[in-house]
Amino acid sequence: MNVSNPHYSKPIIVSNTDRQKFSFTNFSDHFDEHISNSIRGYSNLKDDVVSISKYFVEDDTTVLDIGCSEGTLIKRIHDQNDQSTQSLFVGVDINDSFKRHWTNTKRIKYLVDDVTTMSFPKNCSFVTSLFTLQFLSERERPHLFRKIFDSLVIGGGFVLSEKLLSDDGKTQNMMDFLYYDFKKTNFTEKEILDKEVELRHLSKSISEDQLIKQLKSVGFSKIQTFWRNFNFVGLVCFKPYSMGNGGSE
Fold first, then answer.
1. What is the reported pTM?
2. Continuous segment of H or E residues that includes residue 2
3. Is 71 helix (H, G, I), strand (E, B) or coil?
4. Crossing angle, helix 42-53 and helix 72-80, to 10 degrees?
């Protein structure tokens, strides 16, 4: 088994059965590394998101990372946007087990909160959410997309990544097993299967067409795919300068 960090140790999970129960809390010590071992190209995705942020972050605005986990992405975005000295960078996660990784500074703040109920800033220039929204119910997603859209300043950007469903069964089967072949380089077959079973009630994946329709329904008229690996996709969405003519610029 190939694990890049020699000090990495898998969490000890206590269960009444032989099946290990997946929980974000169980992986909070090394969550970034766990995701990197689970999603091929995850580090490249984060690099791209940081680079994209340079096109959006402005002074006197807020940058928001939804589902910030260890908080490394929002810190990197802050560090790379030295052209903006009057902006605030906020990471939020519902799981308080990640607090041990956070260090608040004058311009970087971390919050434990539920994004479906919390109030968003109204001056966001850039909002990110990597592999978080797929764990929300379908009825909650449109409302959250609307909150994100309304929080953005004109010309602001929203970057999200999700694991999506293929359009047909044959393609879905192929993508699933190519993905499992990759995961076997870092996890045992039992670990892979146990996690798939535990995610049944957590993951609420939809198709790419459904996702784009949801985003367009709240006002994001320009949506660009910038990253893809198996059925994991990264999108950048623009809040248009003009809301007339279907939101075109």
1. 0.84
2. none
3. coil
4. 40
